[in-house]
Each structure stands twice: as C-alpha cells, then as structure tokens.
Amino acid sequence: MFDAGRRRAIPESTRANYDAAVATYRQTSLTAFQQVEEVSLPQQPEPADADENASRERQIIEDALVESRGRVSGPNGAAARLRVPPSTLEHRIKKLRIRKSHFKLS
C-alpha cells in the first residue's frame, strides 16, 4: 500500500514534538534555578552589611510607597512597582516597621 510516506512521518512528527517539549522543560527548569540563585541571600551577613542592606531596602520601599501614595497592592501599588507579590512587600514593611500611613495623601 502506497501512503506517500505518511506512516514514516507520524513517528518523526511525534519525536519532534517530544524533543520540543523536552527543550521547553529544560529551559523552564534552568530559568527557575537561575531566578532562585539570583534572589538567594547570603547565609549569615556581617552585622554592618545587614544594617546597610536593611537601610537600602527601607529606602527602596519608602520611595515606592511615595510614588504609589502609600498603596501597596493593585496595578499602581508599590508591589507592582517593585515587581514583588503584595504579601511579600507587606511582610517587609512590617519587619522594617515602616508606617504606610505616612505616605498617603490627605
């Protein structure tokens, strides 16, 4: 029976789809590992460095709160500006004892 190579093309197509899926999975995994590595903090920072980092973090958060008029969530909120989840930003604000009310306009 002549099928113009159709029977041979089906396994080749399946193999190509599988290879594409594997490549996508590997790239996704690699990207995830790179992102985790980028956000990993040092295990035990020096106290002076920790104070300096906290001061820098506080200033960055306060600047974002000024720009967002004290709003944390939403498309114009500080979390969106800093590209972090709102819950994470709320946690950092609480830990750094930042008063969001100081950044709201009357």
Structure description:
By secondary structure, this protein is an all-alpha fold. The protein folds into two domains: 1-39; 47-103. The protein is 66% helix and 0% strand. It is built from four helices and no strands. The chain has helices at 6-39, 47-67, 78-82, 86-95. It is elongated. The protein starts with 5 loop residues before the first helix and ends in an 11-residue tail after the last helix. The mean pLDDT is 82.
Keywords:
single chain, 106 residues, mainly alpha, 2 domains, 4 helices
Give a brief rundown of this model:
The chain has four helices and no strands. The chain is mainly α and 106 residues long.
Class from secondary-structure proportions: mainly alpha
Please tell me how large the radius of gyration is: 25 Å
Low-confidence stretches: none
Please summarize the sheet with the most strands.
Answer: none
Question: Roughly how many Å apart are the termini?
Answer: 83 Å
Give the CA-based shape: elongated
- The average pLDDT value, as a whole number, equals 82
Approximate strand percentage: under 5%
Number of helices: 4
The percentage helix is 55-70%
Domain unit count: 2
How many beta-strand runs? 0
Can you write the helix and strand succession as a string? HHHH
